[in-house]
Amino acid sequence: MTALASPRTRAVPPQGTRGILTAILILAALLGASVLIGWLLASVTAQVIPGAPAYLLLVWTLLALVILAPLTLRTFPWLTNWFYLLPALVFILAFTVLPVVLTVNYAFTNYSGQNSGNPDSAARQDATLNADRTQVTLPGLDSTAQAYLNCSATNCAGATMVLYDEDASVPYRVKVASAQDRTFTLAAPAPAAVKVTQATRINRISYVGLANFQEIFSKASRALWPVFLWTVTFAFSTIVLNALAGLILGILLYNKRLKGRNVYRTLLFLPWAIPTVISVQMWVALFNQQFGIVNKTLGLLGIVAIPWLNDPLWAKVSILMVNLWLGFPYMMTATISALSTINDDLYEAAEIDGASRWQQITGITLPLLRNSFTPILLSGFAFNFNNFGIIYLLTAGGPAQEGRESTAQSTDILLSWGYNTAFVSAGGQNFALASAIALIIFFLTLAISIVNFKAAGVFEEARK
Fold first, then answer.
1. Which of 201, 351, 370, 453 lies in the 20 to 30 Å Cα band around 343?
2. Where does the chain cross the membrane (predicted)?
3. For strand 128-129 and strand 135-137, is the pairing parallel, antiparallel, or unpaired?
4. From CA 313, how far away is CA 401, in angstroms rounded?
């Protein structure tokens, strides 16, 4: 009886939270095993076929998943109903977990445009190979082998060298057993099919500990603190201005006695409906100091042209104005939607009691809108804290400001500072430093979010 009941027992899924966690863990283990097998097979393939494409890793992983999935179902028959989670887990691991893991890892390395783990084309040297294909000589080398390969060992044992054929099209990586002067002895003979004419080194990625964080905080007065202060000011000012504008317009347009209110709503909704890229580029043209329509109009009134995008202070004002234009329709729509949930009987009773329109707004409307607006304001602050698009499209972080890092100019926020460091920093991309900045942004955002939630009473509501 026990033997007959065993398959049925295995077919019964665990119940409750335990069942969900068990299913997720089994599926995650299935994916992990498939990736591991795919990586091992791809490594073997690369050894056998040096020119094998990198996408073979994905091919081998998918094949391993196809083979392991039926075996997993045979072991856990009840898992059939949970296999719909597999695509979700793949996307979460590929687009959320993996980027986070890589970002944390790179923050403690020297990964940059100069240290990318790829062959150094700038250090390429003419090379000759001896008859038994085990020694590479660089006749034009004017430094020591240790300095050339950037190796820690004196004889460069275990270091990697890259060989090129006469077409210099396909790099061949080989291990170095020892090095002396300009001659490098290989751990294994070079491939017979390669006619070596050039060689170079690898721009190695290495761990540097907390060096990136030390660099950030050593220059905090030139980048971190001013950028952080402007980021908080920008996010807070934006949400206050947008909320006030949206609230006022929403209350005015909700008035059922207002004629043509639907037309007004449609017109005021247009800034939100137009794509941000188009709107911001339009404002760039409008704010042009010499030819923009804004300064042209001010000139007719006898006002001197304002450097909207060329002065640090006015550039910040311009960003707040444009973000107000882009954001108030959302707040207006949210206000109108929230007002529709308030019972009209409250206003009728207040009007009978002799309350003025202003007293109705302050005594009924605003208190009842508080619960609806709290999550909207918190999410709006979090969004604008990392609102990279408006900064990049309108000012690109500029204009330049004296005493600041080239990657952290007057209107740069934390996210644009990280972007500039990663992709447009002077002297080449610095992905490791940008990853360290991303970690700092994460902890700052987490701290601000906790303070916001606590101030809004979110935790107390959750406990209830």
1. 453
2. 20-42, 54-73, 85-108, 227-254, 266-287, 322-342, 431-453
3. antiparallel
4. 10
Give yes or no for a contact between 73 and 402, defined as CB atoms under 8 angstroms apart.
no
State whether CATH 1.10.3720.10 applies to domain 215-463.
yes
Tokens of 311: 């002065």
Neighbour count for residue 431 (Cβ, 10 Å): 24
Beta bridge partners of 109: 207
Looking at domain 121-201, does it have CATH number 1.25.40? no
Give the residue among 424, 417, 410 at the shortest CA–CA distance from 388. 417
DSSP structure class, residue 402: T
Please, where are the H alpha helices in 145-191?
Answer: 145-149
List average pLDDT for each run of 10 residues in the chain, which is 464 residues long: 46 75 88 91 83 83 90 86 82 87 93 85 86 87 83 81 80 86 86 83 88 93 93 94 92 84 86 89 93 91 92 95 93 88 84 84 85 84 90 91 89 93 79 93 85 67 56
* pLDDT at res. 149: 84
Residue with tokens 């760039």: 284
Model pLDDT, residue 11: 62
Sequence letter at residue 281: Q
For residues 395 and 412, give the distance between their C-alpha atoms in angstroms, rounded to a whole number: 9
How far is Cα 354 from Cα 336, in angstroms, rounded to an integer? 25
Asked if 239 contacts 381 with a C-beta cutoff of 8 angstroms, the reply is yes
Tell me the Cα Rg of the chain: 31
Domain boundaries, the chain: 2-106, 121-201, 215-463
Q: Are 336 and 317 in contact (CB under 8 A)?
A: no
Contact status, residue 288 vs residue 305, Cβ threshold 8 Å: no
